[in-house]
Write a structure and sequence with these properties.
single chain, mainly beta, 7-stranded mixed beta sheet, 49% strand
Length: 127
């Protein structure tokens, strides 16, 4: 019954902003690792920002540091990805993923550690 639903993707110009949402149903955010991953055509899926719901500890990919932030609304079981200063290299399908709590060191290193995935939302950055 657990479901993850992403939304908020779209088309923006370079330098633009998007805010992605991932709503989880059938769970509470008691002790989970929640990851935002992205996959561009022809590339491997990569971890972007991941957070532990229990203590808020995070990992951020170097490529998005200073531009993307993650936040959690515990009551609404929703995680957000605020994406600022978008570049064409950010174009990808963005997925949220959920797994019982992983270590900070490993929770964003590979997509294979996550069992539950949303459908994805397309982010396109183009002039």
């Amino acid at each position: 019954q657990l479901q993850l639903v992403e939304s908020g993707g779209g088309l923006v110009q370079p330098g633009g902003t998007l805010r992605l949402s991932c709503v989880a149903s059938g769970i509470t955010f008691a002790s989970y690792s929640i990851g935002w991953f992205r996959q561009a055509p022809g590339k491997e899926r990569e971890g972007v920002l991941c957070v532990r719901s229990s203590d808020g500890l995070q990992y951020s990919a170097d490529s998005v540091k200073g531009r993307f932030t993650i936040s959690i609304d515990i009551e609404r079981t929703t995680v957000y990805l605020q994406m600022n200063n978008l570049t064409p290299e950010d174009k990808a399908i963005y997925y949220c993923a959920l797994e019982p709590q992983l270590s900070v060191q490993t929770m964003c290193s590979t997509a294979s550690g996550y069992k539950y995935w949303g459908q994805g939302t397309q982010v396109t950055v183009s002039s």
